[in-house]
Amino acid sequence: MKKQTLQSRETAQRILAAARDVFSAHGFSGSTVDGIAQAAGVNKATLYYQIGDKETLYAEVVRGVIGGAADSIEQDLKEARTPVDMLKVYIRNMALAADQNPWMPRIMMWELASGGGNLPDAALQAFARILGILGRILDKGVRGGAFNKTDPVVLHMMVMGAFALYKTSTPVRERVPGLAEKTAQEGETVSGRVAGEVERVVLGGIVKQPSPKPRVPSRAGIRQAKPGLAP
């Protein structure tokens, strides 16, 4: 019985892996259950038994990544002490999620191009959860005087947009003079240097800078400014 359970789990994971590849290559509308089953090396009956229909497969693929990223952020936030550290946790975890799930940015690009109508409720709820976490980080920074007021939706789109575009633009960057060598070295990885660049730019715009101290005129200047005291 245990052996059958293990085999069943392995089959389910193989189906999900195939679904990720197919959905990222063709989008939801361009993917078929037949194609996913063929990529997984199973028949349709097994696919339906292990996971469900096409919509269920898609929901599992998308929700798992977004929900997993939210879990990781919440866990790492326990060690963060300042709003700046918390924002770094958010950025680094989103970059890591993109690298660990390289098919996800392509799926999101398909969704954006099609208006997002295929995103399941579970994925939307997980997305709202991440926005809630980011919103609380920003609010804490604003209340503590560390951050300028910032829209969490806009910020999330900036961060994830940068990561998604960088990962999906590799074939283009490979052909751009001056970028080919760097692209060959870095590929699609965003959780290293790219995340650092995004972090630097985001923090530079959000972190409040101290107000400049008023200039105090020198004594000589004061004397010169007074009538009758000119040398």
Structure explained in plain terms:
With 231 residues, the chain is an all-alpha fold. The protein has helices spanning 2-26, 33-40, 44-50, 54-77, 83-100, 104-114, 121-143, 152-168, 170-173, 180-186, 193-206, 219-225. The longest helix is centred in the N-terminal third of the chain and has 25 residues, at 2-26. It starts with a helix and ends in a 6-residue tail after the last helix.
* Rg value: 25 Å
Tell me, rounded to a whole number, the average pLDDT: 87
Low-confidence stretches: none
Q: Report how far apart the termini are.
A: 103 Å
* The number of domains: 2
Query: From the 3D coordinates, which CATH architecture of the largest domain would you assign?
Result: Orthogonal Bundle
The coarse silhouette is globular
Helix content estimate: over 70%
Which class best fits the helix and strand makeup?
mainly alpha
CATH class of the largest domain: Mainly Alpha
Query: Could you give the count of β-strands?
Result: 0
The biggest sheet amounts to: none
CATH 4th-level superfamily of the largest domain: Tetracycline Repressor, domain 2
Query: In CATH terms, what is the fold-level topology of the largest domain?
Result: Tetracycline Repressor, domain 2
Figure out the total of helices.
Answer: 12
The SSE order reads HHHHHHHHHHHH
Strand content: under 5%
